[in-house]
Amino acid sequence: MKRSALVLSLLLATGAVQAHDDDNGHHVSCNVDSKYALDTYRNAFVLTQEDGKPARISFGGGKLFIDGREAPLTPADQQRMREFEGELRQLLPEMQKITIEAIDIAFTALTEVARGLSSNPDKSVAKLKRSQALALRELNSQPSWMFGRDADDDAVAAIIDPIVSDFVPEITGSAVTMAMKAVFAGEEERQAMEARMQKMGDALDSKIDARAKALEPQAEAMCGRLRRMDAIDNALDYRLPSGKPIELLHVDVKETTNAP
């Protein structure tokens, strides 16, 4: 089963859309799974899998094709497929927009950490900016990343994880060095280090919190759309030649309430 993380906070691609977190600590997340990779052909959507049957599912305009043959759909199922297609067409640009914003928020956070902890902030920040540009180019080249091509693949994590893995040791080393210096430093130098840390924390609060909060209603709407798509998928009367339901995707909704 391919598993995709709809990312709201990029540190990093954890598998959940952070849809809502209200004043009472109530939190909703949506995990989406699909067996299929998604492509488009003209005005139709095409779902494929390398192992398993059907190998290819395509749909558009209320019609459904299974491995090249049109499926006999009832009028009700034709309407369901039109609704599913409509939701998917709206989902893809929404998903692209929110993920790009989440990536930008994540890199903003990493940049402030680099400024606060790196032994060579200018070099680290420049490196992060290059990495961010590369990440966005890769993401824009695969707008339907929600449906990965490899088992257990997460396209966003595949783009971001190497960047973080490369960045963390550098910052960790600088942080350890700074901590050692603080142990043996005089009072004036120690206060300067503390001021540097405070500045980093303030910058993170001012640049990250408001933007992350602004993503919440967008994520909530996207989570709702995914749930509607899952409900439409589950309502289809059509069965595959094997007798099994088609199951284009599965959405797992989790609700938790933080303890006071």
TrEMBL record:
Record flagged with keyword Signal: yes
Keyword annotations of the record: Signal
Keyword Signal belongs to the record: yes
Signal peptide (UniProt feature, chain positions): 1-19
Superkingdom as given in the UniProt entry: Bacteria
Official protein name in the record: DUF2884 family protein
Protein source organism: Arenimonas oryziterrae DSM 21050 = YC6267
